[in-house]
Amino acid sequence: MSLSCRDSNVKLWNTYDWSCVLNLENIITDGGMYSACFLNYKNNNYIATTNSNWNAVCQKIAIYDFSGKKINEINDSNCNTFFIESYYDPNEENSDHYLITGNFGNVISYDYEQNQFYRDYNDYDNKC
Is 29 helix (H, G, I), strand (E, B) or coil? Predict the structure, then answer.
């Protein structure tokens, strides 16, 4: 996957021949994108992005399908989210799905199914 913050494009490349197999153009219309990752949820593939509006007042995690349509936004994801990754245990039948963000020594996880903050992994007293 390739992420272009300046023009808000997400591209998926075939690493065998380096052809572009998916190009989601301008999926962020009100700001920029910090990071993106794949999310496989209930055997469907999505792209999770960390977005910021141009005034950097609000950062959000947004979920897009492969057509570029926004299908979800994670509640309480208003911390700086420069890095994002998804996690679930494929060997556990009913594994929870998490989105994990990181920034300046802060790591925060979100429960995707519950659409909310799950846990903060840092030494600070506050959430962000």
Answer: coil
Instruction: Mark 87-98 as b/e (b = at least 16 C-beta within 10 Å).
Output: ebeeeeeeeebb
Residue 123 tokens, joined: 């030494």
Reduce the DSSP state of residue 11 to 3 states and report it.
strand
pLDDT digits (tens, 9 = 90+) for 74-115: 866 666 667 888 998 888 877 889 998 887 777 888 999 888
Q: Phi, psi (5° rounding) for residue 122?
A: -160, 180
Q: Return d(Cα 17, Cα 51) in angstroms, integer.
A: 30
Helix (H) or strand (E) holding 39: strand 31-41
